[in-house]
Amino acid sequence: MKKIPALFLLFSVFLNLNAQEVKELGLMLENYEYPYPVSFYHFNAQKDDYKMAYMYIQPENDNGKTVTLLHGKNFNGAYWETTIDALTKEGFNVLVPDQLGFGKSSKPKYFQYTFQQLAENTKGLIDSLGIEETTILGHSMGGMLATRFTLMYPEVTKNLVLVNPIGLEDWKLKVPYQSVDDWYKNEIGKTYEDIKNYQKESYYAGDWNQDYAKWAKLLAGWTLNENYDRIAWNSALTYDMIFTQPVVYEFSEISVPTLLIIGTRDRTALGKNLVSKQVKSTMGLYDKLGRSTQDKIPNAQLVEIPDTGHLPHIEVFDKFMTPLLEYLEK
Questions:
Q1: What sections of 32-161 are H helices per DSSP?
Q2: Residue 231 to residues 122, 224, 315: CA-CA distances in angstroms?
Q3: CB–CB of 296/249 below 8 Å?
Q4: Which of 81, 82, 145, 225 could form a disulfide with 35 if both were Cys (CB 3.0 to 4.6 A apart)?
Q5: 9 within domain boundaries
């Protein structure tokens, strides 16, 4: 009998351990605990009733200011925990919604996703809480939503903060069109290793640790759910929204004070796997995109964080939080 190399056996055990660490998660993350109590905003849209999960943290030393944190495509409100802690310590009220189709919010069977619709849902939540003015801070896909929200509701937006937002370039100009069915086929077959490898290459440019693995395992936990097809379909719909609804052409219309916080090692871009190596090398270059975006937004401030990937608020928290607090406390 042919002997199996010891190194191969060790690698197999490592993969099995990783798989065992991935736990099945409920459709609405019912068995996943958020860092703060979760409430629900109920609303009607597109002929159906939905609920939007959110955390609203009001500190005792209330400074009268509110910050709304908008999550990215592959995340939910829970990943803002340390940001919430730091902001509330300084007296800020903090609102953290899960967008429709994400986290603990409803997962529609059929829905036309637009950034305008998500902005309107978020505005309804803000109004329901009696918040008249708020800083809108968006990360990744949340940056595209934050931009759209600001363009639609400048009277409510005190400041706009964009943290490694996607949508700083129009991928339609370089990437072949993918239908919703194409995005769905890509999502339905994903495993933890697929999710990890994508995030390792794009988000962190090769770096990886357990702080990142935590969020990859959360996505992988959904793949074990018997209703994962619903989650995958919503994910496909939001990919289509991101790809077909760029905000890059409207940055010049932003009329509120804006701060860009950019980890320059980030290489996130939709559709890099669908283009040639040469074209891929021109996409997701945040060391250039941050500066070009600053030039497009009137009077925008830019904070670059060298050698940092897609999630500055997780990878280098102090380097992210220090300039954010300085900006918010002006």
A1: 81-89, 115-128, 141-152
A2: 21, 11, 27
A3: no
A4: 81
A5: no
- Residue 68: CATH number of its domain: 3.40.50.1820
Task: Say how many C-beta atoms besides its own lie within 10 A of residue 297's C-beta.
Answer: 23
Domain that holds residue 267: 37-173+240-328
| pTM for this predicted structure | 0.93
Count: domains in the chain: 1
- pLDDT tens readout for residues 228-263: 999 999 999 999 999 999 999 999 999 999 999 999
Closest by alpha carbon to 266, among 289, 237, 235, 238? 289
- The per-residue pLDDT for range 119-171, each reduced to its tens digit, is 999 999 999 999 999 999 999 999 999 999 999 999 999 999 999 999 999 99
User: What is the rounded CA–CA span in Å between residue 166 and residue 136?
Assistant: 16
Identify the CA nearest to 139 among candidates 201, 209, 74, 208. Answer: 74
- pLDDT of residue 67 exceeding 50, the answer is yes
Q: In whole angstroms, what is the distance from residue 91 CA to residue 266 CA? A: 31
- Tell me if 229 is assigned to some domain: no
**CA angle (170, 257, 86) in 5-degree steps:** 95
267 pLDDT higher than 90: yes
Q: Is 15 a domain residue?
A: no
Mean pLDDT value of segment 190-207 = 87
**DSSP symbol at 306:** T
